[in-house]
Amino acid sequence: MSLALSEIVQNKIRNEGPISFRDFMEMALYYPELGYYSSINEKFGKGGDYFTAPLFSNIYGNIIARQLEEMWHLAGKKEFTVVEYGAGSGALCADILDHLQENRPLYKDLLYCIIEKSDSLREKQKKFFSGLPIFQKIQWLYSIDEISAFTGCVLANEVLDNFSVHKVVMKEKELMEVFVDHSNGFIEVLKPATANLKEYFTDLDVELPGDFCAEVNLEAIEWLKSISASLTKGFIITIDYGFPSSELYQSYRSLGTIVCYYKHAVNDLPYSNIGQQDITAHVNFSALDLWGTRSGLMNCGFTTQSQFLSGLGLTEYLRKLELKQKNDFDFRKKLMLLHTLMVSMGKKFKVLIQQKGFQKPMLSGLQFSQPLV
Predict the structure, then answer these.
(1) 53-163+218-247+274-366 adopts what CATH topology?
(2) CB-count exposure of residue 201 (10 Å: 0-12, 13-18, 19+)
(3) Is 313 left (phi over 0), alpha (psi -120 to 50) or beta?
(4) 3-state SS track over 203-241
(5) Among the four residues 100, 229, 266, 324, which has the most C-beta atoms within 10 Å?
(6) What distance in Å separates the CA atoms of residue 338 and residue 331, rounded to the nearest whole number?
(7) Residue 64 — φ and ψ, nearest 5°?
């Protein structure tokens, strides 16, 4: 009889001693066949644990496609590659390609790459696209290193919050890292933080108050480096929930930002339902900006998801649809869902666009950008 993932984690601790929260989170989410994203269990939509923006309406993907079209124009209307990290159900990719098909010159030289490290999700995506004309435009990769050099755009929609993070806490002016042990249940123990974790806050010019708990996403730094190494000319669009450092480390967030999703309910119990629930941490957009710059990427702008969509003409887009479908009940239902996207989710989610190879490009989605401090 196969072991449950919780038992596998316990055995690892028993054999090796306490493991870092980062290693625990990696196992919980990505352990082969048993991790949350590696298992065959449904994750998205009504039968899963949460909804993502593309599941609310195809309008979301269609509007993002508008930004990609503009980027293609700025890049010289040549061969253009879109690289989507963690495509989830595949809905966003489908909606983007559905819109871009209408631009024949772009679509002719377009390649859409999905980077998906979960084999189970990869198979579900292939099944989803099977038989659709857009299938021929899509390639699946395990790493961006498989693309030697390209011009285009990297898209990360609700991805970085699932990168495995180190968990730290400031104790008596010394930064400590949280490790996971097991004794009649999972418990947290503290060990002195390593130099790279301390340098993370030093480089951001952040001094955590006493007893303040926070997360450190070192994987995001390596992620930016790898993208910059492959991207000859183009953009990175990061859409996720999170804050700049100035907001992320306010006193009312002293318990950290780890949040779990299980059957559409939110909890702060990462050691429960191991492998069966999502574990997330808020994104530090100041960190993405800093280490992006160090990797050769320039900041184009930072805004909320709702402002991003507004800048790309969402209101005008909806007016045109309404004229065509004003008596359509399904369309009215879509408008209600879109209200959720714009108001409830749209203000919580942020958009950061970084670029390489351009001189201060003007992007419609950043018309209402705000300072990233």
Answers:
(1) Rossmann fold (3.40.50)
(2) buried
(3) left
(4) HCCCCCCCCCEEEECHHHHHHHHHHHHHEEEEEEEEEEE
(5) 100
(6) 10
(7) -60, -35
| Residue-wise pLDDT tens digits, 81-136 | 999 999 988 999 999 999 999 999 999 999 999 999 888 889 999 999 998 999 99
Q: Is 137 helix (H, G, I), strand (E, B) or coil?
A: helix
Name the token pair of 218. 């070192």
Q: What is the 3-state secondary structure (H, E, C) of 274-312?
A: CCCCEEECCEEHHHHHHHHHHCCCEEEEEEEHHHHHHHC
CA distances from 305 to 30, 52, 349 (A): 28, 13, 5
The secondary structure of residue 253, as a DSSP letter, is G
Q: What DSSP character marks residue 20?
A: E
Q: Which two tokens stand for residue 123?
A: 């198979």
User: Domain extents for the chain?
Assistant: 53-163+218-247+274-366
Q: How far is CA 98 from the centre of its chain?
A: 22
How many Cα neighbours within 13 Å face the side chain of 251? 2
DSSP secondary structure code for residue 44 in this structure? B
Closest C-alpha among 174, 166, 101, 90 to residue 134: 101
Q: What is the C-alpha separation between 125 and 24, in angstroms, rounded?
A: 27
pTM of the model: 0.93
Strand pairing of 231-243 and 150-157?
A: parallel
H/E element holding 119? helix 119-129
